[in-house]
What we know:
- It is built from 11 helices and 31 strands.
- The chain is α+β, with helices and mostly antiparallel strands.
- The protein folds into 3 domains: 1-405, no CATH class; 416-551, no CATH class; 555-679, Trefoil (Acidic Fibroblast Growth Factor, subunit A), CATH 2.80.10.50.
- Strands 2-1-8-7-4-5 form a 6-stranded antiparallel sheet.
- β9 (360-366) and β10 form a beta hairpin.
- α1 packs across α2, α1 packs across α8 and α2 runs antiparallel to α3.
- The protein is globular, with a radius of gyration of 26 Å.
Amino acid sequence: MSEIIASEMTETTNPKLKALADRVTNTLRLSLEKAIAHQADPTNYPLSADPNSFEQASLSYFNAYFESRLQQISAKLGPQKASEVQPLLTAQRKEVTTKVMTSLKAPQKERAVMYGDLAQVNLQLDSTVIQQVQAIRIPSTIKLSQQDLLLINPSIPGVQRISGMDGSGLTPQSTLNTLELRVRKLKCLDKTDVKNFLGIPLELDPDAIALSAIATDPTGQVWNIAETPMGRNFDNGRTETYSPSKSIARFALDRGTTWPRTYRASLTIAEKDDGGGLTVFSDRIFTEASRLVADALDDEVGETWAEAIARVIVQVCKELWKWIIEALGLNDDVYPPQLVQINIPSFGARFSGAVTSPERKIVYRAHGGVYELYYEWHLSNATPMSPASSGPRTGTGSGTGVISASLVASQPSEGVPLRLYWSRQRGDNFSTATLKGRQDAEAAGYSLIRTEGYVLPESQRNTVPLNLYWNSARLDNFVGASQQSKQEIEANGYGFVRTEGYIFSAQQPGTVPLKLYYGATRGDYFTTATEQGQQDARGAGYRLVRTEGYIFPKAIALRAHNGMYVCAEAGGGRELVVNRTWIGEWEPFLIIWLGGNQVALRAYNGQYLYPEDGGTRRVVAKATQIDPRTIFEMVHVGGSKLAFKAHNGMYLCAENGGGQEVVANRPRIDIWETFEIFGA
């Protein structure tokens, strides 16, 4: 009988994959070295002006590391202790910098031992390390062909045979289309201990733990899954059991054409007491690693690349964090990732007749802490994760579009984020734009879900207050702005708490509707401005009540006249096309507000849109910084529809209403020059 095999995955022993992992790790190490050297000697170690470079991200991480430590000491031990410790932090910063500078000044022969052919990278150039590495020919010992990947068939450690086919195995199709990876419980055997940091026992309170993941399916899709709070009170011996189990990843079993299939996830936990842990920098490491791995794959590799990238990414992350912690002494509270996988032989297979696998365990050890995470695989009809990109990778290109990452918009200069929180215990959605709101949500055990958009902190023309109300009997928060909503909720026993901000009463250029939903089963009001929020509401049985007003989105997706969405091919670096039926990761564009109705639009890969050849040929996402070419004027056509005037005075146009490239060569606005915007 066919069997589903679940297992934990170890680091690769394949020589080519190991060599590739070393090369990617060294690339990121060199980038971090350059950022730290820049602090000591900015003249001789200049950084690229590109604010999205990995060196700039590394520099931000390096600075934030010491700042967060000082804030943590002040919060837990008092300002006086913080003053005493500040010289020690300065000394540690100097020690780390000295280590890096000593390494950089080592003889070339020693650098070659450490970095191989990458020792030729010149950290004293303006160009980034990654740009220089991409210009160095990838050795044949590393370049992966399809034949190489087909030969990678590693033994699976700790194999657990847990299923057979339903009945006789003749069922032509399963009614369960989704495979879920779920966490059942997290056990603290020994809490995180960072007292070795300058000899100061910082971890005086129980650990707050969060989990993030990278998931891959057999078609080459890769998702970078945002962190999930796992609990705030982990102390020695404490176990947090989740009922229901926490769903971390949901794969569509009907995506792809071949069987058997292997699904994988890299799971990382972090201690969050200092507000650090799974930081943006950690996510950036995942993203850069995936892009660099993609560059080492031959064009014909196709769907077989998922096997390689999953193995290499976990090894790169482990090795880079090990170097950061051990070699540099930056003892961040991120535990090395653990990789789990499952092999499904066919559509319709079961776990010994059941839809849920037996419980499995992985162990995390770092920073003096030991945690056991218990997980399971589950077959269901839950909504699967949306495609992380517009299709599987079929060539090396620039490696962009490989990792799914949540886009975070640059808000309007006067805007503040409207954050959505959720309490499973109360069944309550809660949106807030104030510090008090965030503090109240966290104190009550609410989990941060996402940023819905941006509201104004002060009243302006054509705005109305976005007010918070509370019903203690229902344990429900209500956030709304319309007079009709105010009358209804006051009649239902809700009391005014505060004004969270101000939103537009009528749609303005670049704004999206803030919609109110109501879930009768939970007795819960829910306001959202994103497509994801509306999908979640409908999926949970909520009904649309009304539009409360309009806010600035964190990012936008553009739908053309033919109903298709505008997409930056490969996540950017190429042309814009209008042929996508859903909003994935290549379809949202981050808005950079430049004043008035002027904006710049940034694609997934961090590059800005502009009309190539003056707009006569096509619009591309290739600019590395904002300049006159990248500035567009938004023109409000009506409702949620906009037109975009480029720097050449012409409007963006979806040729033939969509299905082709986007150009900027139309002198007036018509239906092909009009785009409906959605919060993304």
